[in-house]
Design goal:
0% helix; elongated
């Protein structure tokens, strides 16, 4: 995982109870550097009666020391029920980065040219047509922060409210999106007043293009 410093990250761990919990359980979380030195340590106590018999999935929020240098670290979890502590041996990598986060800019989506118009009672699209009254819309969007969702909008007039057509990501085709457009859902237009379709995308930071 990648963590800004100062910051925090969540540690997921499991305590397996074979019988009733009769003593408090101490759990110690250690942050180690690549030289096997402890650079941060925190502890929590699980009171008696909290843990049930069997595997108990738990989480703990570990605070990264503010003065920790940039670099790669790993987490160690030790569980002590009054006998010898049992410590994890498999490393969980944590990348600490003190660099201030940079503003994220959504790359402008690029789409195939799509134009909608009406001839009499027939709805048509430039490009991709499907049997019946449904048509296919295709769009392409990439972003350096990850695309959260994409959609198409149909608008008969710039002043009118848009009709939103949800888009689905095409499996195996990164950045490509598809939607089925049912022409019966589209408001009437005429040759002199065509409707317009645009492709929109939003990234994980909330930027929309």
């Amino acid at each position: 995982m990648w963590v800004n410093s100062p910051g925090s990250f969540t540690v997921a761990y499991t305590i397996n109870v074979t019988g009733s919990q009769v003593v408090p359980v101490e759990v110690t979380f250690q942050l180690w550097n690549l030289y096997d030195q402890v650079v941060g340590e925190e502890m929590t106590v699980v009171p008696v009666g909290v843990l049930s018999t069997g595997a108990n999935a738990l989480t703990y929020v570990f605070t990264v020391p503010a003065d920790l240098p940039d670099g790669l670290y790993h987490v160690r979890v030790c569980i002590d029920d009054g006998s010898d502590p049992l410590c994890s041996v498999q490393r969980r990598a944590v990348r600490v980065d003190n660099t201030p986060p940079q503003p994220v800019v959504l790359e402008r989506p690029v789409m195939d040219e799509v134009c909608a118009w009406v001839t009499g009672t027939e709805y048509e699209l430039f490009g991709y047509a499907v049997t019946g009254t449904e048509y296919e819309l295709f769009g392409y969007a990439t972003d350096n922060f990850g695309v959260a969702e994409a959609w198409f909008e149909y608008r008969a007039d710039p002043a009118n409210e848009s009709l939103v057509i949800p888009a689905m990501a095409i499996p195996g085709q990164p950045g490509e999106y598809w939607a089925a457009w049912n022409s019966t859902d589209v408001p009437d237009t005429g040759p002199q007043a065509p409707g317009f379709i645009r492709f929109c995308a939003e990234d994980l930071a909330g930027n929309v293009a």
